[in-house]
Amino acid sequence: MAGITGYDMLLAVLVPAVVAPVCFVAGRKIGRVGNGLLATAAVAISTLLLAGSSGTVFSAGRSVENYGVWIGLFKLDAVFMQDFLSLTISLLIAGVSTLAAFYSIAYMSHEHNQEMYFTALLLFVSGMIGVVLSANLILFYLFWELMLIPSYFLIAYWGTGRPRVVGFKYFMFTHAGAASLISGILLTYSVTGTFNLLELSNLLNNVAPGILKAIMILMFIGFAVKLAVFPVHTWLPDAHAEAPTPISVLLSGVMIKTGAYAIVRMTLTLFPSELAKIAYGLSVLAVITMLWGGFMAFAQTDLKRMLAYSSVSQVGYILFGLTSLTALGLAGGLFNVITHGVAKGLLFMCAGAIIYATGIRDINKLGGLAGKMPITAVATLCGALSIAGTPPFGGFASEWMIFAGGFAAHYTILTSLAVAATIVTAGYYLRMIKRVFFGECPANLNGTKEAPLSMLLPISILTFLTVAFGIFAYAPLQVIYPAAEAVAKIFTGA
Amino acid sequence: MALTWPIDLLVLFAIIAPVVYLVGVKVKAGKLVDAWAVAGFALSLISLYLLYAEVSVKKIITQYWAGSQLRGVALLEIDMLSIFMAAVFIFIGLLTAIYSTRYMEHDSGHGEYYTLLLLMVAGMVGVAFAGDFFTFFLFWELMCITSYVLVAFRKTRWEPVEAGFKYLIMSSAGSATVLFAMSILYGLTGSLNFAYLSRTLSTAPTPWSILALAMIILGLGVKAAVVPFHTWLPDAHPAAPSSISAMLSGVVIKTGIYGLIRMMLLIFAPDAYNWQIVMAVFAVLTMTVGNLMALLQSDLKRLLAFSSIGQIGYIIFGLSVASVYGLTGGLFHVMNHAISKALLFLCSGAFLLAVESRNLDDLAGIGRKMKITGFAFIVGSMALAGVPPLNGFQSEFMIILSGLQKGAADSSWYMLSAIMVLNILFSVGYYLRIIQIIVLREPSSLASKAREAPAPMLFSMAILALLCIVIGVYPGPFVGLANQAAQAAFNLDAYVKAVIG
């Protein structure tokens, strides 16, 4: 067996899930800090385990762990798989989650029931990792919903504003998407007789195009809701803005990216002939998402709500890259998953630091914080510039690849619009930075201090990554490009 | 081993229960009769397990319980389907009895209560074991009559009495219809034996046998609460003591389902009678009405009762597909719904005991005060909402899957399956609503005084909640049981040959 233990993937999913009840039971005894450290350690172990399987992925292309029969009646096996695509996303998920768990220790200090919080957080992370590693559609769906339930409670219980209404909306939207997804999955089984992802692509070739199209659309709706593509995005600004900040980091930074992962893994890989017909339509949707998110972000005065709309806009870039169906565009889209995950995680953490320090989240009521919170200010600037696609930050590297892919696919007008959308992005971010960090400091904020060290540490790490991904883009691309190339080959071959 | 033991033990313990109660009063051991009833259920469950071991070898066992001179009637015929249903009935009965030891503390008449409970379960097990209409009807009425009394058990208040009366009238009308269907079948064939009826009627429909089928669907449909024969259920289930609601919603309505499965596959074979699409329409109607009505309720137990109607729709849909997969899903859902709905009613009983109100506004935030019960309540609701990785999801996906598989031959089944998916979505809406009210809201003035439920009640709830999770995560062996039961239900040949030879 390869990797560190031979059961790397199973353990990566199980360790957070098993530590979760421990957190709950031991909760009161070890207190908030103990809980937080335990949770951080659990997710960090997952991260290491996932990184451990990278050796096999590089040498053999993929690594598969088969744990035998799960439900015999449907010949359903518990299979986990790690290849270039899942390696990329799973490392992002586990890495950002580790930082978010650590960040939570200080941020959640004013809240009640912290042991429940960390329990839910760990289950949430376990679900996200499981989604990316599952090589079996039912297992995939199981984890897909496992991310939903704890995140719902995290929003509805510890959220701000009207958490229960927001949580309800989040749950219903995502669950409606999931219902569409499960219909697609079950329809797949009824025509092919298997749930195994590794066997499906050959079997689906013989299926009638009408059914194939139905399956693709049903599944895509499920993924699009999670990814928050334009007409079904409305849950995102509410949920991401009102969730407790570390959870916003996870929702905006990594959870919605499981939608992007699923689109590459299933929609693009399993239904190439049907997808090629509608790829242009999806690109149009992507550009609408980009612009809509961008303009809506301009209109916001709430710090976190603005960041949430910015996520919608960035989802548009990712989808645009993916639907260009060229190796460069796909690589750009996947790379943007990473750079946006890091940068948006960073920005939400900074927003959390500001809220923690001042208790205010209205952009118009803030000002002049650059002198009081210098580290947060620099970090915010780095994150914002990265998302706006400014060199030398990570966002630049991913966005030019997306645009290059768009031009290569001859989507000239759409790509021009997409480039124009970056101006909007730069506009609202610079406006936010000017309002929050410069100008006159309101009198009531004179005593503001920098956030505690345990919050600044994750912020610094993410800031470093944002810069590093821009300058040393070749390093992550060694993993991402083979993944993109493999998918692009399906289309050039077909 | 005598195969009537599971029933015998229940009846025996039921008859002696009043005596035990009196002895308990005499020697000042107030809980004696409670322990007696729990022991009765436990022994019955053990004997059922022994019977299971025997059936899994021999596949079908028959016995003429009134002697062999009454050929054709008074027959018990037990296959895996019977065992499966009986196991669900007795298991939920056992947990309910454990729960009742504390829940019914403040009521009088424990002797009667446990006698009725034991007899009701005995009736249900008898229905599952019956091999002819005479036996079936005998046990059917035993179950019905005891359940009327149990619904109206708290007779000092008006609501249970009224609900019990409505239940009595409607259910008796249903029973009478079944009786009429029986007499038509007897007139047609000269026998009440399932095996003979199957041999004569299953491949040759006549207008009279179709009429009998319609009457059986109606008669058993009343018990199973198939829309439009469901109106007694939302009144009767909430009015009963919560432990009895758990029995009624969890298992008693399943006897109607069992009767439908047995008769419609055995006597009115789907290939000849083509009832699939009719049943599917009933199923879709049932689930839609149940779920939509549940959305509108402000009374917790009434909401749960309507949700039971919705879930019955799913089970009937699994049956209406008339394939082994579909029936496996349906039977698996019988088990899962029994577990999770019983759990929810037991939880709501614990809430009611603490605040004495069923109104959702009064119950707001009570899950924060009663953490374990609150957690069990979340698990049960999520399970019924079909959220993975809990048990309800596993069976619901199997049912939808079987519907979609049928869609390849007849595309209207795609439509019907899609309606079921939409229904599950609806149901998530109200389950989420009750979770939000009970667990997430700030406690109401009544709820803030609530204390956690006593240990025996928690025990039953914890076992059920654990099962929800275990079956959801590792469904293999449980699906295996349901699959054996479904295969037995479709194995007409073996069932007929075991009697006729």
What does the oligomeric state look like here?
heterodimer
Low-confidence stretches of chain B: none
Order of helices and strands of chain A: HHEEHHHHHHHHHHHHHHHHH
Q: Can you list the strand order of the major beta sheet of chain B?
A: 1-2
**Overall pLDDT confidence of chain B:** 89
Shape label of chain A: globular
How many domain modules of chain B? 1
Mean pLDDT of chain A: 87
Task: Write up what this structure looks like.
The complex is a heterodimer of chains A (494) and B (501). Chain A has 494 residues and is mostly helical. Chain A has a domain at 297-494. Chain A is built from 19 helices and two strands. Chain A has helices at 8-52, 54-60, 84-107, 114-133, 137-158, 163-192, 197-203, 209-227, 235-242, 245-255, 257-270, 272-299, 303-323, 327-358, 374-387, 394-408, 412-437, 453-471, 474-493, and strands spanning 62-71, 76-83. In chain A, strands 1-2 form a two-stranded antiparallel ribbon. In chain A, a hairpin with a 4-residue loop joins strand 1 and strand 2 (76-83). In chain A, helix 3 (84-107) runs antiparallel to helix 4 (114-133). The model of chain A has no long low-confidence stretch (mean pLDDT 87). Chain B is mainly α and 501 residues long. In chain B, helix 3 (80-103) packs antiparallel against helix 20 (455-473), helix 4 (110-129) runs antiparallel to helix 5 and helix 12 runs antiparallel to helix 13 (300-320). Chain B has one domain (5-500). Chain B has a two-stranded antiparallel ribbon. The model of chain B has no long low-confidence stretch (mean pLDDT 89). Chain A binds chain B through residues 69-73, 138, 141-142, 145-146, 148-149, 153, 156-157, 164, 167-168, 171-172, 175-176, 179-180, 182-183, 186-187, 189-191, and chain B through 328, 382, 387-389, 393-394, 397, 400-401, 404-405, 407-408, 417-418, 421-422, 424-425, 428-429, 432-433, 436, 440-441, 474-476, 479-480, 483.
